[in-house]
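The records we work with from here on pair a chain with its fold. These numbers are not coordinates but entries in a learned vocabulary of local backbone shapes. To see the layout at work, look at the sequence and tokens printed below.

. . .
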Amino acid sequence: MPAEYVDLPVYHEELARALGFTSADLVENRAGRLTGYQRAFQFRLISRAIAISLVCLLLAAGSVVLAFAIGISFGLGGRILLLAAIFAFVVGLMAWTSFPLWRDLNSGLVSSIEGFVQPAEKETHISMSYGPGMGILSFYWIVDDQRFAAPGKAYGVLTPARHRLYFMPLTRRVVAAEPLSGGQ
């Protein structure tokens, strides 16, 4: 049944909408290139990360100033310093994810892989010292023992079948996908 469903135009449209690509993007991706639209979308993600980083940097600096104004020896000052460290961690995390994406976008290259795509989920459990922990669910597509992070919206749309995934080489972000029928 899935092989028949993936050949329907509605499935192609749903997959394109969920991943945010057009038929023109797909033509360029087949040639190994990102389109201007795809680059602009990813640059918006980098811009958002930079904005969040700047806010966290300001909050970290403000927290350090406040902690020293209150006094580090008091419990509240130490907690505020811990908060500053968390803000600084967020800044580092944003930089760690943005630089490879920036390099991918500057190269403008797209790689592809084809094979049977199997959706997979991974739950990361985070325990909290002050209460019950929480689970963070990550979605993936597995092709030939290679794992690609999948946005939740696209994860829900994909039907397990043969596909060709187009992705940026460094970050391995999927930018487009197309189902393959027996003749492709």
The first strand starts at residue 111 and ends at 128. The mean pLDDT is 86.
